Amino acid sequence: MSSFNVLHEWSNAQHEIVDPGASGVLPVSKTGIVNMTSATVETRTLARPAKTGIQLTLMLYSDGGDITVTVTGDVGALTFADEGDWVTLHAVEDTTALNWAVLGSKIASTPAFLPLPIYAFSEDDGTALAVFSGGASTTPGWSATAEGGGIRWNNHANPDPVRTTIPYPPDLDATANVIVHFLAYKTGATSGDAVTWTCTAFENIDAALFDADADFGGASSAMTGNAATKTVQEETLTLALANVTGSPGCITFSIQPTDGTLGTDDVTLLAVWLEYTRKILAS
């Protein structure tokens, strides 16, 4: 019998709790199952449990649109996208308050974001970046004003990369792609300078050899070369799930404007972050 049918049969017993409907407030004091139905995209809210020991299952029983349940506490937002999606929550008491913990689920995962702090980057050999200096140098440097700052490269055919390392977050779902986001602007508006970001990516994973991994980076989407000077633009690069191992481990990136894409203009990298799929933790 499928998990959907098992949950439905259980709900036919005395444990069924009435769905409060669109924008409704879910109960926090009863053990049972809520068979949610939607007519369109809808929301529900779930406050902290009233006491420990409560076990609450939420299931999308009839799908007329996604239902997002905002859960107070550590769980956060849950999105039920397909008929039969379910989550079972258990009420526990932590050091500060009553909270919900996920016992099990079959649900669409929720996205998460991990910043790569711009001031954590160094030159490719580990040398600290200096203040940006104009001219024909391949070496990037810090460039800042009252409005913000980042890493700036001169117009050069072969700009040097910068490098940083971050740990994998424990809630990263390694069965889904990871997307690298680059936020930057160009000083200049040369149509031919449609900058892409070349990014190498190497993992160091628990119990594996330090140098066991192969590069699984690539080149990002392209900036619009003739956008007005100093227009901030976001580009992306997808890291395929087949190459993503996840925690415990770390990932090292080197990033540079792709060779041949900075013929006339300078470019400044403002921010880099990862978008990943969050797995629902059991505890």
Structural class of the helices, strands and pairings? mainly beta
User: What is the overall shape?
Assistant: elongated
Cα-based radius of gyration, to the nearest Å:
24 Å
Number of domains in the coordinates? 2
Q: Provide the succession of SSEs.
A: HEEEEEEEEEEEEEEEEEEEE
The major pleated sheet works out as: 6 strands, antiparallel
**Overall mean confidence score, pLDDT:** 91
Euclidean distance between termini CA atoms: 27 Å
| Beta-strand content bin | 35-45%
Number of strands: 20
Give the helix proportion (percent range): under 10%
SS field, number of helical segments: 1
Low-confidence stretches: 10-14
The CATH superfamily of the largest domain is: Galactose-binding domain-like
* CATH topology-level fold name of the largest domain: Jelly Rolls
Q: Return the CATH class of the largest domain.
A: Mainly Beta
CATH architecture label name of the largest domain = Sandwich
Describe this entry's structure for a reader.
The protein has 283 residues and is mainly beta. It has two domains: 3-108, Jelly Rolls (Sandwich); 113-278, Galactose-binding domain-like (Jelly Rolls, Sandwich), CATH 2.60.120. It has one helix spanning 3-11, and strands at 16-17, 24-25, 32-37, 42-46, 55-62, 67-71, 76-80, 86-93, 98-106, 110-116, 122-123, 141-145, 148-153, 162-167, 178-187, 197-205, 218-219, 233-239, 249-257, 266-278. The strands form four sheets. Strands 10, 12, 13, 15, 18 and 20 form a six-stranded antiparallel sheet that branches. It has a five-stranded mixed sheet with strand order 1-3-5-8-9, with helices on one face. Strand 12 and strand 13 (148-153) form a beta hairpin. The chain is elongated. Mean pLDDT is 91; it is low at 10-14.
